[in-house]
Specification:
The complex is a heterodimer. Chain A is of the alpha+beta class. Chain A contains 19 helices and 13 strands. Chain B has one domain. The chains are: A alpha+beta, B mainly alpha. At the A-B interface, helix 9, helix 10, helix 12 and helix 18 of A face helix 7, helix 10 and helix 13 of B.
C-alpha cells in the first residue's frame, strides 16, 4: 500500500523499490532524497531509526532507515554517492534524530551534509586525519603510534581574578565525574545554577568496533558485540546474530528461542536493577544503590552458572545458544523470581513514594512524545513519554509472540515516568521469565550451522528491544567470511542527542537526575 | 539561678593555691590550657569514633559489613589508619589557587567547631565555661565555618569548588534563621541564655521536649541542624553526584582531613547541643550524668546517620524554598506560642 503511494508519487525517481519482510527498500538519487523523506514522514514514518553508509569499494551507499510505529514497517532509502567528496542534502531539519547520525557519517565516511546545523566530528577527535570507515583507510592497528603529539595544555585560568558576578560559567561535567555513568563529557553553560547551554561530547570510549568488524569473521565478531552495551550483552549478541541468521535464512530451534528470551530478560532485569541503583545514587539515596546491586548479584550468579561469564556472556550464537541449561539453573532462577518482587516493593517504599525523590523527579526533564519520536528515542525513554512502542511487540522475535506481557508506559514524560517504566518492566520481565521457565520446550539448542559462516551476499537488519531501547545491527555481506560492513544502532546515542533538549532551563542537580533517567551506556554510544 | 557546679575541682584547687600566696591568674591559665587539651582530645576521639560508627551503621543499613580488618573484626582502628594515611599524603595545592587563602581555609573551618565545645555541659560537674551568653556564643561561633568554606571554594580555583562554596553560603545563611528561632523558643522557656540555666529549668524530668510547643522547636532545630552540618538530604555543598565533592574537591591529605574533622565535630556538637536544649542534658536516673549525656548525644547522632543513609537529596531551590517558606514561618509561630505559654503561666 505504502509502496503504491510512493510509486505513484515519485514514479521514475525511484531507481528500485522492493519489499523484503518488514522493509521497503527504495533506491533514489540524491536530488529526490529530501522530498522522499518528507513524503515518508507524512505517511507516518516519523522515527528516524538510523542513518549510515556502506563503502562497497565501488561506491558509497548511504542507508536511511525510517520506521512507522502505526504501520509496523521500515522504509530503507539507499542513496548512492561518490567515495570521496560526497555531498548530500541534510535531513536534520526534517528529523532531529538525523543530526547526530549525519555527524557520525561525516566523521567516519567524510560525507558532507549541506545545510546541517552543526557538522563536526563526533566520535573521533577534531585533529583526526581521514575517515576510518572508508575501505581505503588502514585498519586501526596500523595507525597505532601515528597520532601527532597532542597540543600543549592551555594555561590554567585564574577564576579568582577574572570571574565577574554576572558571567556565564562553562562547566565541564565529565569525562571524569561520578554521575556521567562512564566517560561522557557534558559541556554545560551555567548562569548561577541554571543550565542555559549543554553540549554532550562523546567518543572517549570509541574503539572502532565497526571497523574492526570488517576484519573479523562472523563468529569472531560476536564477543566484540558484548562490549557495546556492556550492561546487557545478550541484546547486542542477539541483534547481530539476528542479522546474520536473516542473511543465512537460519531457523532457530524452539528451545533455543526460549533460552534466548530467558537470557535477554535476565539481562534486562540486571540492567534495570543497575539503573534503579545508579539513579538513586545520583539523587544521593546511596542505600538503594547497594540494594540494587545486591539483587543484581543473583542475576550475575545465574549468568556465571550458565555461561561462565558474569557480564560479557557471548551466549547467543549464530544458530542458537552454545549449551543447554546446567543442573540447578531452573531452581535458582525460580528462587530469584520468588525473591525479587518483595525487593522491588522495598525499593518502591524507599524511593517511589518518597517525597524528596518525587520532587526531584516529577515534572523534571520533560520530553514530549512527538519530540521523543523525532529524536529517535526508544525503550523506556520513549515509553516514559507515553508512546506505546516496544520492538518485542512491534517486530516480535524469538519466543516473544508466545509470551504474555504488557508494554509499560507512563504519560508524564519526565524523569519519574522513565523511572516508573523501568520499575514496571522489571516486574514484566519477571513475568516473562516465569512463563519461559514454565513453558520451556524440550529439544535441540543449536541449529545445523556450517563450520565456516559465509552468508550469501546481501544486507540484513537485526532489531532488538534492549534495556535501553531499539538496538539495531545492520550487516552487509558480499558472500565472504567477513562482513563488508557492520553497523550498530545504539539507542543511548540517540538519547544523548536529545539530552540538551531535556536539560535546558533546569539546574545542576537536575542534570544528574535527567542524565540518570535516560540510562546511557557509553560503551554503545562510542562503539 | 544556681550556677552549674562545673568549676568545683577548680574551686578546691584555688583554695590550695591561694594558701601558698601564688597569683590566681597563673593557675587560671594552666587550668584553661588543661581544659583546651582535654576538649581537643575528647573531640578527636569523638570524631574517630563517629567516622567508624558511620561506616558501621551505613554498612548495617546497606546489608554489608563495613570495616572489618584493621583493629580486630570490628575494624576499630580503621579510622586511625585512615588518619595516618592522610597524614602521609602529599599536600597538593592546585595551580592558580590563591595560596594563602587556600592554606588558611581548613583551619578557619576547624577552629570554630572546636570552640563551641567550650559551652557543652558534659556532666553536672563538667563544663569548661558557663558563659552568660552561652547560647548566643554557640550560634555566633557555629556560623563561622561558613567563611572558611567560602574561602576554600573560592581559593581552589575550581568551578565545582566554587559552586559548592556558593551553595554552602546560601544554605548556611538560610538555615541559620530557623535554627535561631528554634533556639529562641528554648531561651524563652528557660528565661536565660546561659546553658546552666537551661539545664536547670529542665531539672526533675521537665525536659523541654515534653513541654508544648517545644516539640515543634525540636523538630525545627533538628532539621536545620542537619542542614547546618551539610548532611543528606541537605548535603548540597558537597553533593558528590553533582559537584564531585564541592568546596573541598581540591584538598588532599591533612587539609582534607581537617574538613572531615570539622564536619564530624560539628555533627556531634549539634546532637549534644540538641540533647542539652531539649532532653535535659546529662540528667537521667541510675547512670552517671556524663554517661547519660553521651547516651543522649549518640542516640541523636545515630538518628542523623540513619537519615543520611535513607533519604535522597533535595535540589538547591527546593532547599531554599523549604527554609524560607516552611521552616521560618513555622519557627515564628512556635516562638509566639512559646512566648504566649510563658506569659500565661
Amino acid at each position: 500500500m505504502i509502496l503504491q503511494v510512493l510509486k505513484t508519487q515519485f514514479g521514475g525517481a525511484l531507481e528500485s523499490a522492493q519489499k523484503v519482510g518488514r522493509e521497503l527498500r527504495l533506491r533514489v538519487g540524491p536530488q529526490t532524497l529530501v522530498s522522499l523523506a518528507r513524503a515518508c514522514k507524512q505517511l507516518g514514518f516519523t522515527y528516524p531509526a538510523d542513518i549510515t553508509a556502506v563503502d562497497t569499494g565501488a561506491e558509497l551507499r548511504l542507508v536511511y532507515r525510517l520506521v512507522s510505529f502505526a504501520a509496523g514497517q521500515q522504509i530503507v532509502i539507499t542513496v548512492g554517492a561518490p567515495r570521496s567528496g560526497a555531498r548530500l542534502p541534510t535531513l536534520a531539519d526534517l528529523y532531529h534524530g538525523a543530526e547526530w547520525t549525519e555527524r557520525e557519517v561525516y566523521d567516519l565516511f567524510g560525507v558532507t551534509f549541506d545545510g546541517h546545523p552543526d557538522l563536526r566530528r563526533i566520535l573521533l577527535t577534531d585533529d583526526w586525519e581521514g575517515h576510518p570507515l572508508l575501505k581505503s583507510s588502514p585498519p586501526p592497528a596500523a595507525r597505532a603510534g601515528a597520532r601527532p603529539a597532542p597540543p600543549p595544555v592551555a594555561p590554567v585560568r585564574d577564576l579568582t581574578q577574572t570571574l565577574t558576578p554576572t558571567e556565564r560559567v562553562v562547566l565541564n561535567m565529565g569525562p571524569q565525574h561520578p554521575s556521567t555513568h562512564g566517560v561522557l563529557r557534558l559541556e554545560l553553560t551555567l548562569e548561577g545554577e541554571v543550565v542555559v547551554g549543554c553540549r554532550p561530547i562523546i567518543g572517549y570510549l570509541h574503539r572502532g568496533v565497526e571497523k574492526i568488524g570488517e576484519a573479523r569473521t562472523y563468529p569472531q565478531l560476536l564477543p566484540y558485540t558484548d562490549r557495546l552495551d556492556y550492561l546487557s550483552s545478550a541484546s547486542n549478541n542477539l541483534a547481530y546474530v539476528q542479522a546474520v541468521e536473516k542473511l543465512m535464512g537460519l531457523e532457530v530451534p524452539e528451545r533455543a528461542q526460549y533460552l534466548r528470551v530467558i537470557l535477554l530478560e535476565l539481562n534486562r532485569i540486571a540492567s534495570h536493577l543497575l539503573f534503579v541503583s545508579t539513579f538513586a545514587n545520583d539523587l544521593a539515596a546511596t542505600t538503594v544503590f547497594l540494594y540494587g546491586l545486591r539483587e543484581r548479584e543473583y542475576v550475575m550468579d545465574l549468568f556465571e552458572l550458565w555461561a561462565g561469564a558474569r557480564l560479557t556472556q557471548s551466549w547467543i550464537r549464530v544458530g542458537g545458544v552454545p549449551a543447554d541449561l546446567p543442573d540447578g539453573f531452573l531452581e535458582k532462577a525460580r528462587q530469584f523470581c520468588h525473591l525479587l518482587p518483595g525487593r522491588l516493593d522495598e525499593y518502591d517504599r524507599l524511593l517511589t513514594g518518597n517525597r524528596i525523590f518525587r520532587v526531584r523527579t516529577e515534572g523534571i526533564g520533560i520530553l514530549p512524545p512527538e519530540e521523543a519520536v523525532d529524536y529517535a528515542c526508544s525503550g523506556p525513554t520513549l515509553r516514559g513519554s507515553g508512546v506505546r512502542y516496544d520492538v518485542r511487540r512491534a517486530e516480535p522475535y524469538e519466543a516473544y509472540p508466545r509470551l504474555d506481557f504488557e508494554v509499560v508506559t507512563a504519560p508524564t514524560c519526565d524523569c519519574m515516568g522513565r523511572y516508573l517504566v523501568r520499575m514496571g518492566e522489571l516486574r514484566q520481565s519477571l513475568r516473562i521469565l516465569r512463563q519461559c521457565l514454565d513453558q520451556l520446550p524440550a529439544g535441540e539448542v543449536m541449529a545445523k550451522v556450517p563450520r565456516l559462516l559465509r552468508p550469501p551476499a546481501g544486507e540484513a537488519y537485526g532489531r532488538v528491544e534492549s534495556p535501553r531501547g531499539d538496538f539495531g545491527c545492520f550487516v552487509v555481506s558480499d558472500g565472504g567470511p567477513q562482513p563488508v560492513r557492520v553497523r550498530f544502532r545504539a539507542p543511548s546515542f540517540f538519547h544523548l542527542a536529545a539530552l540538551p533538549r531535556m536539560l535546558l532551563g533546569w539546574k545542576i542537580g537536575d542534570v544528574v537526575a535527567i542524565l540518570g533517567s535516560i540510562d546511557v551506556v557509553l560503551g554503545e554510544v562510542d562503539r | 539561678m544556681i550556677p552549674l557546679p562545673a568549676l568545683g575541682p577548680y574551686q578546691s584547687l584555688l583554695a590550695w593555691w591561694q594558701a601558698r600566696n601564688w597569683p590566681e591568674w597563673i593557675l587560671h591559665f594552666i587550668w584553661m590550657l588543661l581544659m583546651a587539651a582535654l576538649v581537643t582530645a575528647f573531640l578527636l576521639l569523638t570524631v574517630l569514633i563517629l567516622v567508624w560508627l558511620e561506616r558501621k551503621v551505613s554498612g548495617d543499613i546497606q546489608s554489608r559489613v563495613g570495616p572489618n580488618r584493621v583493629g580486630g573484626r570490628f575494624g576499630l582502628l580503621q579510622t586511625a589508619a585512615d588518619a595516618l594515611k592522610l597524614l602521609m599524603k602529599e599536600d597538593l595545592i592546585p595551580a592558580g589557587a590563591d595560596r594563602a587563602v587556600f592554606l588558611l581555609a581548613p583551619f578557619l573551618v576547624f577552629v570554630p567547631s572546636l570552640l563551641i565545645y567550650l559551652v557543652l555541659p558534659f556532666s553536672d560537674r563538667w563544663l569548661v565555661k558557663d558563659l552568660n551568653l552561652g547560647v548566643l556564643f554557640v550560634i555566633a561561633v557555629s556560623a563561622f565555618p561558613m567563611i572558611g568554606l567560602i574561602m576554600a571554594g573560592w581559593a581552589s580555583n575550581s568551578k565545582y569548588a566554587l559552586l559548592g562554596a556558593l551553595r554552602a553560603a546560601a544554605q548556611t545563611l538560610s538555615y541559620e534563621i530557623p535554627l535561631v528561632l528554634a533556639v529562641v523558643c528554648v531561651v524563652v522557656a528557660a528565661g536565660s541564655l546561659r546553658v546552666g540555666d537551661i539545664i536547670q529549668a529542665q531539672r526533675g524530668g521537665h525536659w523541654f521536649i515534653l513541654r508544648f510547643p517545644l516539640q515543634f522547636a525540636f523538630l525545627i532545630y533538628f532539621i536545620t541542624a542537619l542542614a547546618e552540618v551539610n548532611r543528606v538530604p541537605f548535603d548540597l555543598p558537597e553533593a558528590e553526584s553533582e559537584l564531585v565533592a564541592g568546596y573541598h574537591v581540591e584538598y588532599s591529605g591533612m587539609r582534607f582531613a581537617f574538613f572531615v574533622l570539622a564536619e564530624y565535630a560539628h555533627i556531634f556538637f549539634v546532637a549534644a547541643f540538641c540533647a542539652t536544649l531539649f532532653f535535659g542534658a546529662w540528667e537521667g536516673p541510675w547512670l552517671p550524668p556524663a554517661l547519660w549525656f553521651l547516651i543522649k548525644s549518640y542516640a541523636l547522632v545515630l538518628a542523623i546517620m540513619w537519615i543520611r543513609w535513607t533519604l535522597p537529596r533535595l535540589r538547591i531551590d527546593q532547599l531554599m524554598a523549604f527554609a524560607w517558606k516552611a521552616l521560618v514561618p513555622a519557627g515564628l509561630v512556635v516562638v509566639m506560642l512559646t512566648a504566649a505559654r510563658v506569659a500565661w503561666s
